[in-house]
Amino acid sequence: MKKRAFPAQQRGHADHGWLKTYHSFSFANYFNPECMNFGVLRVLNDDFIAGGGGFGTHPHDNMEIITIPFAGDLEHKDSMGNVGVIRQGDVQVMSAGTGILHSEYNKNADVDVELFQIWVFPNQKNVTPRYDQISIKELQTQNSWYQILSPNPDDQGVWIHQDAWFHLGDFSEATNLDYTLKKEDNGLYIMVIEGSATVAGETLNRRDALGLSEVQNVPFEVAADSKILLMEIPMLN
């Protein structure tokens, strides 16, 4: 097993007034040549968008983009004609493929939006752009992992063009459990959203992350009142 720690306090940070953001990997004005990605996981931004703020229309291509909101209402518009609002309990995915334009704004003037935006390199380039949004409330289970993303359109959660599986865990009580990787040679990126956990002997607190590779089964000791995101993704050669 190989381990790579990503302490919360070592993330890049920017405060634009309307946007306070923390970058797990190099992004925008934050550049760390030793922290460009973990496998095909290229971006993990922890964003806080003030009331009325947002990202104007901008382009993306050849990237799988996943948005997981934790609070507030984020309004989305794109060049495919999609208009909608994503909220806590939703997951949004865009396969940018040959190219899309989109905007994202806090729909409310008095409530912040809190979200993770995640970019994953695809395993196919120049696919037809695609958008999807689902509620994961019916998928949620307490004190165990539940899948929110996979490579399979017929599987639970959203899907992307990559051999990746994402799981969330909502833990109301202290829990010991494992995660077994679904594909040999994949890695696992663990982000503690809230609370704390001991993972493969490493203690992680709020917004700490750990990357594991060359592993098939990972033991967890999770504290009560914790929320954890698991991202199983291919490692780059």
- At CATH's second level, what is the architecture of the largest domain? Sandwich
CATH topology term of the largest domain: Jelly Rolls
Q: What integer value in Å does the Rg equal?
A: 17 Å
Number of helices: 0
Say how many strands there are. Answer: 22
Kindly give the count of domains.
Answer: 2
Strand residue percentage: over 45%
* Physical arrangement of strands within the biggest beta sheet: 1-20-17-22-15-13-14
Name of the CATH first level of the largest domain = Mainly Beta
N-to-C series of helices and strands: EEEEEEEEEEEEEEEEEEEEEE
Largest sheet: 7 strands, mixed
Mean of all residue-level pLDDT scores: 96
Low-confidence stretches: none
Tell me what the structure shows.
The protein contains no helices and 22 strands. It has about 240 residues and is an all-beta fold. It folds into two domains: about 10-135, Sandwich (Jelly Rolls); about 145-235, Sandwich (Jelly Rolls). Strand 2 (about 10-15) and strand 3 form a beta hairpin. The two termini are about 15 Å apart.
Main attributes of the structure:
about 240 residues, mainly beta, Jelly Rolls, 2 domains, 7-stranded mixed β-sheet, 7-stranded antiparallel β-sheet, globular
Quick recap of the structure?
With 237 residues, the chain is mainly beta. The chain is built from no helices and 22 strands. The chain has 2 domains: 11-135, Sandwich (Jelly Rolls), CATH 2.60.120.10; 145-234, Jelly Rolls (Sandwich), CATH 2.60.120.
